[in-house]
Model the fold of this input.
Amino acid sequence: MSVYFYGCVTLDGYLAAKDHGLDWLYQTGSAEDTGYADFYARMDVTLMGRRTFREVEKTGNPAGAYPTTENYVFTHRPLDQAGFTAVSGDPAEFVESLGREKNIWVVGGNTLLAPLLDRDLVDHLIIQTAPVLLGEGIPLFTQKAALRRFRLEEARKYGPFAELVYARP
Done:
């Protein structure tokens, strides 16, 4: 099993605007501008929070967004969407329960990423940077203070995006 974070941030490190919106991202480029398709083809499971799922719902076809993966949404509310399963509890314990043979993508949410980083469960960080400054918003990294090292494996340019690919040493 490998746990991946794959996502885009602003130059000043924000995952989303203060209102959790992603208009800054949609106005910058699209998944077709990146290596998204190749990345997604290697994934078995997606994990996301309720707010990220709401963004997926805005596409009008949530089931079509992640058609080949098991998709879990961390939420305390019922979820009535084909192709997605509502879960709650500790994200780290949930990830550990999935087994060692799956590639897991943390789609979005610093509230999911932080506990996984705190437990050293994140194996790969694939971070695209958009040429946007928000000044304020939802930061990507909110884990507890601790030194964690990653090794740079690749740096790529996709249209307006810079992508850095890191792995745990």
Summary: Residues 2-167 form a domain with the Dihydrofolate Reductase, subunit A fold (CATH 3.40.430.10).
